[in-house]
Amino acid sequence: MTLSRKEKPDEEAPAVQLDSVALRYEQGPFILKDLNLVLPADSIRFLTGPSGAGKTSLLSLLYLAQRPSLGAVKLFGTDVTAANRGRLPAIRRKLGVIFQDFRLLDHLSTFDNVALPLRIAGIAETEIKENVTELLSWVGLEDLMETRPAVLSGGQKQRVAIARAVVNRPQLILADEPTGNVDDEIGMRLMQLFIELNRLGACIIIATHNEHLVSRFDFPRLSLADGCLEEQA
Question: Which of 33, 175, 229, 232 could form a disulfide bond with 221, CB atoms 3.0-4.6 angstroms apart?
């Protein structure tokens, strides 16, 4: 598969910067505490930690579903915590998010689910057909392009969700257990896709419980425990 970068990342600013970030829901205890992190545009990291450590909460801050209770979240040099709402759509277009629950649109086929970000961006249908077909072949779904999510297995839905998240070559990819529903062979193929996108300049954060997966790749690790973040080489 041949990938090319669609938009050159801002090389002057980190893809992700957290400055003393903390998060709690309403008046409950802090889920995340005093997080400080800088990730360059071309970095790739595993995000690990026990269940309940706050991995999904951290990702939700990065894809702008939550605002921090304290501190600042900066993406591509923009403080999204304080940014005017009118600036956020442009930031979101640089993100690719892979959710654990897939969030596919049941009334759309596999092809149309994956094509959706490109259609929203106004890409020509000829280019959409080429890009989506190539990507679905890469993830092993070329024979299911017209199939709707209701009849897909969990692993197939996972691959559709991943293809949709990366089809527009985002500058920051946030993946929540992206290989959790697929076998080892498909998992390795998906990891190679992430590696290729990273080689082209995307910053990638892969949240996972899979220690076997982590051990097979020499990527630095972000470890969450008790709401605190530690970066390990």
Answer: 232
Q: What is the arrangement of strands in the sheet containing 16-24, beginning at the earlier edge strand?
A: 30-39, 16-24, 70-75, 78-79
Mean pLDDT of 173-179: 93
Q: What is the DSSP letter of 135?
A: H
Distances (CA, A) of 36 to 44, 118, 132, 174: 17, 33, 37, 18
For the chain, the domains span 105-160
Task: Flag whether pLDDT at 129 surpasses 90.
Answer: yes
pLDDT above 70 (res 60) = yes
In DSSP terms, 72 is beta-bridged to 19
Query: Which helix H or strand E contains 19, and what residues bound it?
Result: strand 16-24
User: How many CA atoms within 13 Å lie on the side-chain side of 164?
Assistant: 26
